[in-house]
């Protein structure tokens, strides 16, 4: 299989503080930082670096494509390859996309996040609308963008020419492309494009384009690229959580689609010269505001998401397009989201469209219309599982010109549909028209309907079966290409009866209830059976019975004639694990506190940033999950290899490892802390219960106490299921299975007796070892004591010589210092100088304030005078302008007067009229001849007419002259007034200017005087500072001398104490030697007696142990375990598998499987013939049944269940079944087959999975934590839904 690896490593160079909004990460506790502040000493693949010359200068940049050893292969900007060592490279602090390398096809708003950081807000939002507006308004901005990043400019042209030209947009989400859905996804893409072309709209995709994280299959990628290359409309895509690689979300699998197809601008005309094409997809990796809408990719950190939703960009946007988990949203028809963002953090009265959940629905919060928040989940474009049965899918058409309101829902019905049928009768009545080829139907078979489907054996009944209506209907559906699944629902009464069955005898005789017998009788019966099968001699059996009775009485006062059933009633062990803390444990070098309480179904996954050949292996997931087991038992999940050591848990860079587990047992708080060092010198084990310290003197003693309280021997079966032990019950040998089953029966008395026997054996062995080693130890102690005494004497003499020498040195130094010291009272002199300096400082402050106040006062006066001067100057300017206007008016009036007088004279001269005619026109007579042509005027009418015309012209000329005279008089008067006004204003300006000059001179003199005083005071202050520094040096010399005296006196006291200790050690060694010699003979006798008793107690421990009498009473638990396991197996196999267990004639436990045939019958098969998936279902069911039965019988009720890689070998249906079963196990109301699941107390089911397996059942997890290995250390990122 070929994949494209999308993930690239990234650096962490700072400590992520608690509640940091810029790059927020959760911390496990308020005291422990999960991330390391030390950056890795090497570069990562995909990182942009600079090549450094020999002289240290950095030049050409490139992207690391491969690293091997200390060599790095770089793709340069010109697409050439170059090899350099790490010492020849340095990180490019201003990283930017370049042509070539892993990002040579990168487009979209990713580039805007780097090149236009100056336009981003405090919430790291790229305001693309502001960038486009700035580019259109200012050419310089465009030049700036061009020099910064050519890719950014191309992206801006892309959105300007194409995306900004569309108003309508078609929304879809959650495509989840993978091999099994590829054909359906291609149909969806084709339908979406055709619909967008029909409505002349762009396309918006809201995340989860791919299904698997971290890689993209080549065949899927090629098919998608081939489908997209026909698209003709622009698209906007944001990555979802399935698309993203790292926790920041900047690396994602949408990058290969950024240049999947090219489009033309809708405004360009296609002619003979092809117009320019632009990239169709706009991939938005950072929160971006575009077209007055805010596009937000999936963001894991809630605080970052809240800061974005409360930003100004959000408030000013008309709509939001997100890929978010909102609390209360429907994950499917039955399960709401519990740990998402509160809907109240989204802005009110805005259209919010989101991807992520597959069910199309709307969340409304708020009763008032003014504060109502509405979030609309677009949903997936096709049904993906039975959880989406009956859901109607659709595409949303929105209009950006209408504030992104949804103007139409377009139904889409593509791909296989899922149908649930609750009974056989409903299946028979099911409308065939409602299903089509490729659909999937799940029919639940109830017990009362079995006669319609079960194929009975016998030829005489074959015809009846073939003619069954259900059989005919079933074949009709299947022949039509419709997949039909039959889900058998086993009656609860059958399981209850099977659970109540007792222990069946191997020979078919009566059932013997061993719980009704006394412990002594059971022990005797067991020993007799061992003697009868020659497994034990009669003499030894008698001795074991006698010693065993003593042990039983010591363990509990039992009536030997009457069975005490209370011996078999175990007090429930209610174990609630709150958290585990690891330090120096495995790959966890720094302390990590990991919460384990109330986490729900918790996924723990990993990322290996150190090993390019590994994605998640070796990061420490199992180490972290199994750390509580190591703290309680001192062991981890066993591996197939046998070369491990206990000290292997210690981190390579730590001196010791420490694991601390906190919680409560039977409602009492407890703390267990185990430490282990490589040398085993600093190993310890601490146990605190209900505030009381129960730690024993030895680790072994404390471990025994933990074994009693926590039943540590069964933790790998009831709580911690490692990837190497999860199938251990099914593949275990007979002896091992009996040992495990012994935990499920009431064997307290036998366990106490066995523990007592082992304790006695250990005590005797320890005593024997102590006696054997005591003599040699005491002899060595004697030699060591003598040597220590001699060394103490020599050390005392040496110390005395050193003391005397140092006393002389001290005396000399005191004398020298006394001679050199001149100023006896340095402190007083320093105080005096300091006082004078303070006075100077105060004087300087006073003078500066006075100068500032004087300057402010002078400036106010000067400013006032300047303001007045400006007003006067303005007034003078206005007066001069008025004077000029008056002069022009007077000249014009004079010219008009001259013109009027000239016309009047012309008329008078022309008609020979005297000036007196102006006063009396009646005396004027008409001329007899025309003055122009000289012809006579004969007619009186004509003469009268001429006379009237001449009179009118003379009258008008006279009138114009009078008006001109009047106007000249007025303008002359105005001119005189204007000249007078100019003269007055000019005097005022001269006066104001004189006052201003006077004020400025006075201000300057006053300021110079104050500055001179300040200068003189500062000079005095500088002299005082020199004096103070001289005194400070002298004070330092005195202080250093006093410190030297104190140190020498302390050293002298230490030498005296050392001498006293040497004498005491010598006396102690002599006393110990005498005691050793007196006890040697006594210890030899004790050694022989201890050896004999130790052997007997070892045999008693085996007799009372799991392979002894405890196995004798295990038979009845086998049947109960089978039925509990079968209930889970029915869930995991959909009723198609059975696991059968029984006790054979030789007391061995027989295990067989049964597989359901298509006709409903069962076929018995050996376990070795099962497929990998069938084997995993059986082994997982047996493990869960074991946990269930242990909980019901009161052995262990734990809040935690750890499953390491439980989905191995399972197909997709099997993985989904496991995920659904895990969710059911958290609900105490869920009761499968009355197996006692109501007794579960689970609050956390921790599942360790690889990335691919986890993605298929992602919705089954409440939270997801991630273990990251970086720089040789492992760290933990808690799920964003976890609350401190």
From TrEMBL:
UniProt KW Coiled coil keyword: yes
Regions annotated as coiled coil:
793-857
Which segments show compositional bias classed as Polar residues?
100-114
The taxonomic lineage of its organism, from the top, reads: Eukaryota, Sar, Stramenopiles, Ochrophyta, Bacillariophyta
Instruction: Give every Calcineurin-like phosphoesterase domain span.
Output: 170-311
Provide the species name: Stephanodiscus triporus
Q: List keywords of the entry alphabetically.
A: Coiled coil
Q: What is this protein called?
A: Calcineurin-like phosphoesterase domain-containing protein
Please name the Pfam families in this protein's record: Metallophos
């Amino acid at each position: 299989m070929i994949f494209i690896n999308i993930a690239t490593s990234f650096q962490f160079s700072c400590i992520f503080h608690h509640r940091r909004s810029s790059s927020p990460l959760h911390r496990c506790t308020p005291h422990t930082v999960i991330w390391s502040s030390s950056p890795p000493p090497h570069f990562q693949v995909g990182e942009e670096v600079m090549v450094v010359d020999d002289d240290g200068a950095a030049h050409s940049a490139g992207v690391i494509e491969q690293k091997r050893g200390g060599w790095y292969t770089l793709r340069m900007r010109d697409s050439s390859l170059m090899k350099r060592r790490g010492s020849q490279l340095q990180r490019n602090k201003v990283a930017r996309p370049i042509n070539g390398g892993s990002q040579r096809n990168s487009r979209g708003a990713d580039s805007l996040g780097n090149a236009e950081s100056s336009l981003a807000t405090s919430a790291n939002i790229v305001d693309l609308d502001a960038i486009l507006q700035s580019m259109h308004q200012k050419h310089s901005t465009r030049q700036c963008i061009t020099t910064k990043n050519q890719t950014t400019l191309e992206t801006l042209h892309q959105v300007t020419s194409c995306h900004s030209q569309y108003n309508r947009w078609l929304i879809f989400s959650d495509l989840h492309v993978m091999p099994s859905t590829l054909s359906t996804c291609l149909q969806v893409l084709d339908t979406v494009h055709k619909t967008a072309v029909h409505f002349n709209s762009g396309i918006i995709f809201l995340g989860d384009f791919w299904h698997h994280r971290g890689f993209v299959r080549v065949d899927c990628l090629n098919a998608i690229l081939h489908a997209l290359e026909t698209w003709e409309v622009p698209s906007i895509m944001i990555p979802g959580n399935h698309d993203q690689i790292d926790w920041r979300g900047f690396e994602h699998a949408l990058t290969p689609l950024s240049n999947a197809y090219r489009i033309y601008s809708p405004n360009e005309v296609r002619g003979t010269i092809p117009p320019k094409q632009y990239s169709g997809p706009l991939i938005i990796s950072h929160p971006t505001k575009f077209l007055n809408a805010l596009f937000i990719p999936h963001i894991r950190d809630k605080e970052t998401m809240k800061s974005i939703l409360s930003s100004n960009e959000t408030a000013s946007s008309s709509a939001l397009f997100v890929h978010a988990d909102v609390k209360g949203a429907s994950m499917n028809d039955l399960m709401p989201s519990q740990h998402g963002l509160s809907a109240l953090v989204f802005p009110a009265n805005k259209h919010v469209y989101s991807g992520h959940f597959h069910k199309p629905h709307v969340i409304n919060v708020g009763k008032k219309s003014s504060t109502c928040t509405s979030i609309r989940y677009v949903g997936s474009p096709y049904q993906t599982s039975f959880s989406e049965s009956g859901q109607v899918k659709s595409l949303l058409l929105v209009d950006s010109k209408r504030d992104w309101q949804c103007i139409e829902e377009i139904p889409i019905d593509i791909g296989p549909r899922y149908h649930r049928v609750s009974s056989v009768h409903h299946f028979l009545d099911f409308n065939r028209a409602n299903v089509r080829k490729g659909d999937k139907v799940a029919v639940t078979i109830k017990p009362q309907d079995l006669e319609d489907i079960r194929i009975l054996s016998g030829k005489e009944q074959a015809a009846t079966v073939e003619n069954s209506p259900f059989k005919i209907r079933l074949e009709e559906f299947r022949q039509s290409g419709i997949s039909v699944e039959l889900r058998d629902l086993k009656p609860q009464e059958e399981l209850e009866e099977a659970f109540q069955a007792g222990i069946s005898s191997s020979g078919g005789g009566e059932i013997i209830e061993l719980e009704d017998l006394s412990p002594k009788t059971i022990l005797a019966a067991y020993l007799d059976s061992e003697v009868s099968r020659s497994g034990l001699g009669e003499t030894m059996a008698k001795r074991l019975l006698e010693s065993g009775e003593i042990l039983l009485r010591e363990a509990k006062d039992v009536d030997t004639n009457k069975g005490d059933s209370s011996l078999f009633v175990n007090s429930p062990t209610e174990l609630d694990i709150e958290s585990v803390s690891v330090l120096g444990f495995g790959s966890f070098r720094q302390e990590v506190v990991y919460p384990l309480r109330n986490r729900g179904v918790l996924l723990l996954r990993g990322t290996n940033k150190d090993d390019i050949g590994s994605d998640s292996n070796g990061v420490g997931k199992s180490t972290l999950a199994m750390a509580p087991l190591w703290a309680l038992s001192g062991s981890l999940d066993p591996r197939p290899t046998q070369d491990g050591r206990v000290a292997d848990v210690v981190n390579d860079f730590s001196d010791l490892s420490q694991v601390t587990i906190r919680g409560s047992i039977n409602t009492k708080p407890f703390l267990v802390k185990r430490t282990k060092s490589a040398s085993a010198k600093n190993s310890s084990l601490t146990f605190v219960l209900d505030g009381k310290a129960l730690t024993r003197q030895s680790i072994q003693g404390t471990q025994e106490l933990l074994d009693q309280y926590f039943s540590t021997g069964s933790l790998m079966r009831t709580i911690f299921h490692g990837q190497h032990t999860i199938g251990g019950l099914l593949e275990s040998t007979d002896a091992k299975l009996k040992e495990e089953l012994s935990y499920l029966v009431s064997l307290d008395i036998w366990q106490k007796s066995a523990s007592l026997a082992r304790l006695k054996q250990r005590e005797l062995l320890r005593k024997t070892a102590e006696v054997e080693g005591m003599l040699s130890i005491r002899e060595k102690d004697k030699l060591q004591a003598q040597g220590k005494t001699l060394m103490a004497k020599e050390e005392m003499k040496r110390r005395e010589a050193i003391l005397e020498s140092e006393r002389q040195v001290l005396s000399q130094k005191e004398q020298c210092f006394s001679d050199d010291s001149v100023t006896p009272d340095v402190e007083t002199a320093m105080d005096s100088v300091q006082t004078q300096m303070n006075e100077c400082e105060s004087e300087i402050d006073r003078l500066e304030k006075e100068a500032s106040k004087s300057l402010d006062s002078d400036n106010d006066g000067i400013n006032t005078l300047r303001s007045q001067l400006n007003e006067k100057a303005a007034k003078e300017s206005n007066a001069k302008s008025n004077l000029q206007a008056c002069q022009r008016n007077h000249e014009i009036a004079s010219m008009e007067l001259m013109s009027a007088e000239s016309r009047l004279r012309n008329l008078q001269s022309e008609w020979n009229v005297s000036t007196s005619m102006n006063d009396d026109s009646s005396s004027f007579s008409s001329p007899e001849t025309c003055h122009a042509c000289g012809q006579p005027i004969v007619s009186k009418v004509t003469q009268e007419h001429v006379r009237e015309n001449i009179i009118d012209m003379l009258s008008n000329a006279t009138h114009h002259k009078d008006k001109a005279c009047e106007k000249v008089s007025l303008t002359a008067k105005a001119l005189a007034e204007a000249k007078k006004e100019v003269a007055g204003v000019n005097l005022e300006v001269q006066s104001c200017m004189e006052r201003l000059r006077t004020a400025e001179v006075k201000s300057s003199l006053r300021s110079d005087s104050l500055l001179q005083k300040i200068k003189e005071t500062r000079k005095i202050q500088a002299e005082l500072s020199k004096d103070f520094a001289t005194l400070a040096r002298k004070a330092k010399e005195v202080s250093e001398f006093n410190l030297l005296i104190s140190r020498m006196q302390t050293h002298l006291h230490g030498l005296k104490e050392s001498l006293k200790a040497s004498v005491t050690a010598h006396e102690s060694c002599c006393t110990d030697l005498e005691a050793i010699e007196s006890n040697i003979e006594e210890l030899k006798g004790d050694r022989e007696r201890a050896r004999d008793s130790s052997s007997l107690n070892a045999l008693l421990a085996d007799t009372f142990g799991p392979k002894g009498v405890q196995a004798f009473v295990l038979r009845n638990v086998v049947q109960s375990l089978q039925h509990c396991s079968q209930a889970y197996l029915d869930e995991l196999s959909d009723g198609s598998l059975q696991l059968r267990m029984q006790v054979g004639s030789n007391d061995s436990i027989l295990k067989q499987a049964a597989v359901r045939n298509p006709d409903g019958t069962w076929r018995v098969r050996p376990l070795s013939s099962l497929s990998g998936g069938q084997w995993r279902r059986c082994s997982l069911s047996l493990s869960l049944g074991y946990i269930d039965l242990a909980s019901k019988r009161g052995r262990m009720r734990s809040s935690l269940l750890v499953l390491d890689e439980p989905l191995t070998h399972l197909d997709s249906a099997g993985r989904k079944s496991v995920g659904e079963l895990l969710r059911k196990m958290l609900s105490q109301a869920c009761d499968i087959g009355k197996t006692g699941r109501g007794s579960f107390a689970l609050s956390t089911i921790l599942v360790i999975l690889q990335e691919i397996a986890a993605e298929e059942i992602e919705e089954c997890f409440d939270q997801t934590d991630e273990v990251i290995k970086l720089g040789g250390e492992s760290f933990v990122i808690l799920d964003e839904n976890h609350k401190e």
